[in-house]
Amino acid sequence: MRKVYDRIIDLRGNLITVAAEGVSLGEMAVVHKGNGTQTYASVLRFDGDLVTLQVFDTARGISTGDRVTFLGRRIQAMFTDDLLGRRLNGLGNPIDSGPEIVGEETDIGQPSFNPTRRIIPSQLVRTNIPMIDLFNCLVKSQKIPIFSVAGEPYNALLMRIANQTNADVVIIAGMGLRFDDYQAFIDNAEKAGSIEKTVMFIHRATDPVVECLIVPDLALAVAEKFALEGKDVLVLMTDMTAFADAIKEIAITMDQIPSNRGYPGSLYSDLASRYEKAVDMEGSGSITIISVTTMPGGDVTHPIPDNTGYITEGQFYLHDGSIDPFGSLSRLKQLVIGKVTRADHGDLANTMIRLYADSKKARERQGMGFRLSRWDEKLLRYSYLFEERMMSLEVNLPLEEALDLGWLTLAECFDLEEIGMKKQISDQYWPKEE
User: Fold this and answer.
1) pLDDT tens-place string over residues 252-304
2) Coil vs helix vs strand at 293
3) In 3-state terms, what secondary structure has residue 373?
4) Are 316 and 136 in contact (CB under 8 A)?
5) Whole-number Cα distances in Å, 146 to 44, 185, 298
6) Domains and CATH numbers, the chain
7) What's the pLDDT at 209?
8) CB 79, CB 227: distance < 8 Å
9) Cβ atoms of residues 393 and 160 within 8 Å
């Protein structure tokens, strides 16, 4: 039953306050402006019988005498298989000049999936990016961020993952995107031929801030419906810092007492409630989440990356145009390395990283003008080949080919007895001379 109130008590920015009863947190409302137009709003806070709502579009044109109608439901995502190939905004409305979406209405922001039906992750999600597949495997149902700074090619990295993943459905949740970034996602999906399995929910930098908060919930609500149909879904979110800044902006407008650097004390819960949607369902599909978190000033102790690190299962650290092997970590990789991948995978990855760490010390000695040993020279050659063949984001190799290339790189730079690997592994996989 719809409730109508004809008096707005307070207006502050995009927030309005109404004296109302029997409404719920997150409930949708329609504000009927005096000029005959209307806009949507959602319930943010209660203070006795005073209800504060966030107006979606703009509060311009709203007066205290306007009517507010509560709709008795939360914001809903429309689910249908026809979503594939479509682009929608932060309200779930099409922005691709296509027809209206007609399907099953699904409430957003629902609790995470029943823990009793979750299963232990055990399957590899392929990306054909050696720094992920070989050294820090992405595992089905994992939640993992890409830590970066502004200006790094994190969106390009997401596009590569979207193009090359073996997931059934890719859902892109863009928050605070500039127009050129938004257009790049479209052009990439069309060029790569992945558009037919991709759904985009987009909040552009010029869109209302409240839509930035809704985009990940829309994307995850649709992802859950696809997963329940038995599909493996990959959700790519950029940029969670824009999402957190939107929370901060609204909290300041509501005069909430800030916790750390102006962010509200609910920041951890706000992030966790989205990340915890990652799941591998028994007898159904899965949801894997990769997000971008840009760190202001490169500060990993900033509240956003700091809270994210406690919630997620590792991180990919994008630095100087490549995934840094020392700052990156996948906490679930041990569930698939050597179990669903080749037996040499773990030993090879550990050996290559160890030797690359040694090569960084050799570079320091070279930079300080010290005399280099023959071993230092081998390490230096190895470091350049490692960066070219493994770290470059231009490299596109299936895991098995990346493993073979890793062995070849070791053989080109070192003798077998120098790499310090288990003999039964190295004897089996060391390249044989023709």
Assistant:
1) 887 777 788 889 999 999 999 999 999 998 888 999 999 999 998 889 999 99
2) strand
3) coil
4) yes
5) 30, 17, 13
6) 3-74 (2.40.10.170), 77-335 (3.40.50.12240), 345-429 (no CATH)
7) 86
8) no
9) yes
